[in-house]
Fold each of these.
Amino acid sequence: MPDPFLDAAIDEAGIGLAEGGIPIGSVLVLDGEIVGKGHNRRVQKGSPILHGEMDALEDAGRLVAAEYRRSIIYTTLSPCHMCTGAILLYDIPRVVIGENRTFLGAEDLLRDNGVEVVVVDDQRCVDMMTVFIEARPELWNEDIGEV
């Protein structure tokens, strides 16, 4: 069954790719509504921290603690340690991940801290990242700190 929130995160990843960036997208959902959308904009903004999850949190703006605790973050790729840290900082209780085959982030850290982690293994996400990594390995390696 299609998930409109994961679809929205995938759309964000596509926007990032079209802008010349890394195709990772995310949305923050509060009470069944998207309150923040984002995509990895490290290249576009020259930012060391603007990953998809961080961009979605920034787009959502300032929420109160109780709202974060009722939210779900959707991301096309397993969250890195930085994005995991933000998820933990704001007590976001559930993370839905499009795929973790091309990159396995800090999922165990999320689980160890009581976050529900759902890995969908969506083939669209896998394909988008696989094609990107093959085409731009230097940019991918920079994004994950390998360079």
Note: The mean pLDDT is 95.
Amino acid sequence: MPIIFNKIERANPQNRTAPKKWYPVLKTIKQTNEKEVAKEISDETTLNRKEAEMALNQLGKVLARNFLASNSVQLGECGSFHLTNNGEGRDSKEKVVVADIKNLNIRFTPGKELREALKNAVFVFSEDLVSGK
């Protein structure tokens, strides 16, 4: 299955008067939900669909619990999750306070197997699908 992309024209946010440029932007066709992921897992393991759903549900709880304890989470060859933040900069170490933390972000770093699989990605322009190219 190819990864579909569109061509989108965008302005430079740092210089709105600069000429716009065209960029490839990946398109999501469908979001696979938890039940569908559980079904795929059950099709490839000895878990039944309900057991797989329960495991996925628990994964969310385990991730939250570990993030709140300042831990990252490694999921085997799949990859790892860790927290990052956006924050306000200060002139000195002494002036940095908790209120300077603006947003928490969850970052995923893919493992080797997933990175290798993505190297074989095939891309197709969305308009080519419509025109049959």
Note: The chain has four helices and six strands.
